[in-house]
Amino acid sequence: MINLTETDEGVYYVQNVQADSDFMVLKYVDKASAKETVLCRKVNCRHDSKACQAVSEGANYMGFLTYVNESLYYMVCKSFGEDRGLCLYRIRKDGTDKTLVHRFENQTIPPNAAVMYRGKLFLSLPTMIEFEDATGSESAEPSLVMYDLQTEEETLIVDGSKLKDTYVVPCGGSGDSIYFLEMNLNEDEGLIFRQYDFQTKEIRTVLEGVLNDAQFIWDDTIYLQPAHKKNVEAYHIKTKKREEILTYEEEIDDVYIQIGYMELIKRTKEDGKERGYYKWYDLKEGRYLFDEFESEDEMYVRMRLANGDYWIEKDDGIYFYHLKEGTWTKVEEIS
Description:
- By secondary structure, this protein is mainly β.
- The chain has strands at about 5, 10-15, 25-30, 35-40, 55, 60-70, 70-80, 85-90, 100-105, 115, 120-130, 135-150, 155-160, 165-175, 175-185, 190-195, 205-210, 210, 215-220, 220-225, 230-235, 240-245, 255, 260-270, 275-280, 285-290, 295, 300-305, 310-315, 315-320, 325-330, 330-335.
- It has three domains: about 1-110, no CATH class; about 110-220; about 250-335, no CATH class.
């Protein structure tokens, strides 16, 4: 899940202050100046405790940052303590008025995936089934849950306790519907794309077949990577037409569609450690960002911005990469 989001003026993101730390902070980067600051308006704040509105302390997860109606929404999950559970928070884009919006029922584990669409938050959440003798519980397949920001209602769309060997994940919206995947854990049986209509509350099958990987919907298009093939296809939701958009010759281990771009990944084992090498393809421009595969230890693309630039994390910091010009701007922290 993406831990950064953008507005017209800048980019907001979640930063772990230290590796493997439960101390996390919200930051803001101005696009025009490429200057970074903590999202806090408190005078003389040290940003080192939960007294700072930008800080989350004691959480094992803080993420899925998204922007809706002049506010940022994000999720925090804590496994222990009095505020234990999975919660949705809202904070104004100027760093004020932090508010607990919703606490999800019986959840103490971070979501598997999340999508915000038209003011509705869709989550793939772990499902727990209580033992009949009330001595404990066991995990079942994930459920698909919707939370409506306007009505403040939580709705169960797909009940994971009634599924078997099936992984459910939201992948995007179009029109009055959200689309989600049902992935059979037996890879030979492939994936099923389903559509949930907000108005009728009906679920119908859109596509099914032998496909690889869970993919995003972007620009009213479902992107597909057929299994055992070296190509990527686009299924246009409105016209119901399917076309090939990319072929490749290399041996690729994984292909993932993100919002506005795709990742082609080669995986290797070096010194007993698995390492990924990435190549990124811009879906709108129809070209690769770079000619060669890049090591994830040295460079990683986190987001495509609305203007076509990219947010890229390198081993020496964060950069804006201007694809059309082929130039870089380093993000600098305001001291």
